[in-house]
Write a structure and sequence with these properties.
Elements lengths: L1 H8 L3 H11 L8 H8 L3 H20 L8
Length: 70
């Protein structure tokens, strides 16, 4: 729920789709290659987007003000 609220604030819509395909589908976690095919991106681009977003989420969770706007 909290992560979804953070993802909603991010302007890049690829990020929400990436997380949905990778972690929130009824299918078992899709590989980066499969996620990339669905988003028309390379698997490495998906990994790079994920890593940047993961760092952003961690910073947000550690910040004193969890209601900061991204």
């Amino acid at each position: 729920e909290y992560i979804n609220s953070i993802l909603e604030q991010i302007k890049d819509k690829r990020i929400k789709k990436l997380f949905k395909f990778r972690f929130f589908t009824t299918e078992k976690n899709l590989s980066w290659s499969e996620v990339g095919k669905r988003l028309n991106l390379s698997s490495q681009t998906c990994i790079n987007i994920f890593n940047k977003t993961r760092k952003l989420i961690l910073r947000k969770m550690q910040s004193n003000n969890n209601l900061d706007i991204i």
